[in-house]
Amino acid sequence: MDLYDSPPELNRCGLYYVHIDERACSVTLGFETSHLPARPHLEWQTKDFNTFQFYLQFDAASQLRVTGWNAPAQKTVLMSGGNDGRLRFSARGPGSLLEFTAGQVEVTRTHTYLASAAP
């Protein structure tokens, strides 16, 4: 992302959205983080925000495996390139597993907002 000098680590982001589109063979994941962009968009600079959301769309997804899924929470997220030129993605947590391979990934949407503190 050109918003960051050093993008947020996916392990430190909350994974709150998963959309699997079997027609387009894609998986879209939504993450949120308090690691704010170093270079926010101009329209974001006019409002207060403490949370950044971004969506990653993985195209040409295959070898999808989902086992259980607990409420959104921190998960161990791994993304790496395979020897075959495909990306490998996995997100694991207690009672949860999501893994697949994909041909490519892109950031499709970004958003900022002011999250309230937990009571």
CA gyration radius, whole angstroms: 15 Å
Could you tell me how far the N terminus lies from the C terminus, measured between alpha carbons in angstroms? 32 Å
- How many beta-strand runs? 8
Task: Bin the helical content.
Answer: under 10%
Spatial strand arrangement across the major sheet: 1-2-3-8
Structural class: mainly beta
Low-confidence stretches: none
Q: Please indicate the count of domains.
A: 1
Average pLDDT? 90
Described by strand count, sense and barrel closure, the largest sheet is: 4 strands, antiparallel
Oligomer: single chain
What amount of the residues lies in strands?
over 45%
Q: What is the string of SSEs from the N terminus onward?
A: EEEEEEEE
Protein name: Immunity 50 family protein
Pfam families: Imm50
How would you portray this structure in words?
This is Immunity 50 family protein. This protein has one domain. The protein contains no helices and eight strands. The strands form two sheets. The chain has a four-stranded antiparallel beta sheet with strand order 1-2-3-8, with no helix packed on it. The protein starts with 13 loop residues before the first strand and ends in a 6-residue tail after the last strand.
Please name the defining characteristics of this protein.
119 residues
